[in-house]
Write a structure and sequence with these properties.
There is one protein chain. The protein has helices at residues 23-29, 55-62, 77-90, 101-110, 127-139, 152-158, 181-190, 203-206, 240-254, 260-292, 311-317, 334-343, 373-378, 395-406, and strands at 94-98, 118-122, 143-147, 165-169, 194-198, 216-220, 234-238, 297-301, 325-330, 348-349, 359-361, 385-389. The protein is α/β, with parallel strands linked by helices. The protein has two domains: 21-268, Aspartate Aminotransferase, domain 2, CATH 3.40.640.10; 273-407, Aspartate Aminotransferase, domain 1 (Alpha-Beta Complex). Strands 1-7-6-5-4-2-3 form a seven-stranded mixed beta sheet, with helices on both faces. It has a five-stranded mixed beta sheet with strand order 8-9-12-11-10, with helices on one face. The longest helix is centred in the last third of the chain and has 33 residues, at 260-292. It starts with 22 loop residues before the first helix and ends with a helix. The structure holds pyridoxal-5'-phosphate.
Length: 408
């Protein structure tokens, strides 16, 4: 049942079958639930619980016979605004917000699998996702197989036995490998698997996995959705049946709830997300083209470059945008790469991404250090690889910064 704040005056979110709103319009309007005060901006309901006018109302509310809010671990009006807004942008039936991207990732699988189940995943993954699938799930009797590349025959072989869930990250962090979402979804559905896509690197602006056959989309809202380095958050989007029957019972009782304050920050962040991501993508494209021509650089991995091994697939899946992250492999050693990082004057050394500030990371010694050297090597992560997350500064200042740091 839809929960409404006191004095709520609904405004139509879809204006009729003849007028389907664009995602940019949803970004500033969807989910808005005004109180009787008629405030312009979304209200922050910074409270854990709610009161009832009578014992009977509490009784009826817990029986879910009223639209009354109960407790912020279950739901909260500000969190609901964020969830409804993101669901409208993504074109999903429902959304559940969580306290971090990793709590969303863990919940997406933990609510589905049981002892004896099997999970298939793409091999190039964010390191904490790799740890959940290869270290934690096996402790509870869930087996896994990791698959490289886009060869349908290789995926068909991996998906020839009963599989509960398929987890893919595309583009991957940090080396921007692309997985064919439609091809994997079709094969996965033949064995009854639920397909979960980690869509963090593409963001809701560039890629809509649900339109390509995926069942669930996962976000670290810490990245482009906040995009200003302030809050940790996550989100899962999918069908009403997945969310209501599988996910909600799991998250309501295990408690990875998002804070209402962080949800309020994110509701406001969504209003500028399209503008921010579009600017970051055009900056990243210019920088990737510049870097590719530099003699000290061995290779540049960016989905918007023709040199990317899956350039055509990336352009098809990602709405013609390469994203905001660039993988750079240097010719020099780790010491030379560190010297380059230390010379940067505008770009910060940091392990976040999707931020308004451009950030550079040395994955093998930081974000991906938890993975064994052979696993890192398998993902193409060497001590000479850097990940550049391109922000909102002027692209010529960023190019100038990279140029002066590259000059020995
Ligand atoms: C950051 C990230 C996550 C984890 O999100 P947190 O909000 O840090 O918990 C998962 N997947 C990818 C691809 C990421 O970049």
């Amino acid at each position: 049942m839809e929960k409404k704040p006191w004095g709520y005056q609904p405004r139509p979110e879809t204006l009729g079958p003849d007028w389907e709103l664009h995602p940019q319009t949803h970004s500033v309007r969807a989910g808005l639930a005004r109180t009787g005060f008629g405030e312009t901006s979304e209200a922050l309901f910074l409270n854990s619980g709610f009161t009832y006018s009578s014992a009977q109302e509490a009784f009826d509310s817990f029986a879910e016979e009223t639209d009354h809010y109960l407790y912020s671990r279950f739901h909260n009006p500000t969190i609901a605004m964020f969830e409804k807004r993101l669901a409208a942008i993504e074109g999903a039936e429902m959304c559940v917000a969580t306290g971090s991207g990793m709590s969303a990732m863990f919940a997406s699988l933990a609510c589905l699998v049981e002892q004896g189940d099997h999970v298939v995943a793409s091999a190039a993954m964010f390191s904490s996702c790799h740890v959940v699938i290869t270290e934690f799930l096996p402790k509870w009797g869930v087996s896994f197989e990791l698959v490289k590349g886009n060869d349908p025959a290789v995926w068909a072989k991996a998906l020839s036995k009963p599989t509960k869930a398929v987890f893919i990250e595309t583009p991957s962090n940090p080396l921007l490998e692309i997985v064919d979402i439609a091809m994997v979804s079709e094969l996965a559905h033949k064995v009854g698997a639920t397909v979960i896509v980690d869509n963090v690197m593409a963001s809701p602006v560039l890629q809509k996995p649900l339109t390509m056959g995926a069942d669930v989309v996962m976000y670290s809202a810490t990245k482009h959705i906040d995009g200003q380095g302030r809050v940790l958050a996550g989100a899962l989007l999918g069908s009403a049946s997945y969310i209501q029957d599988k996910l909600l019972p799991f998250v309501r009782h295990t408690g990875p709830a998002l804070s209402a304050f962080n949800a309020w920050v994110l509701v406001k962040s969504l209003e500028t997300m399209h503008m921010r991501v579009e600017s970051m993508v055009s900056n990243a494209q210019a920088i990737a083209e510049f870097l590719e021509k530099q003699p000290g650089i061995k290779s540049v991995r960016y989905p918007g470059l023709k040199s990317h091994p899956n350039y055509e697939l990336a352009m098809k899946q990602m709405n013609k945008g390469g994203g905001s992250t660039i993988g750079i492999e240097f010719k020099g050693s780790q010491d030379e790469v560190f010297a380059f990082m230390n010379k940067l004057r505008v770009i910060d050394i940091s392990n976040n991404l999707g931020d308004s500030k451009s950030l550079i990371t040395h994955p093998s010694s930081t974000t991906h250090r938890r993975l064994a050297p052979e696993v890192q090597a398998d993902m193409g992560i060497t001590p000479s690889v850097l990940r550049l997350s391109v922000g909102l500064e002027h692209s010529s200042d960023l190019i100038k910064d990279l140029q002066q740091a590259l000059a020995k």
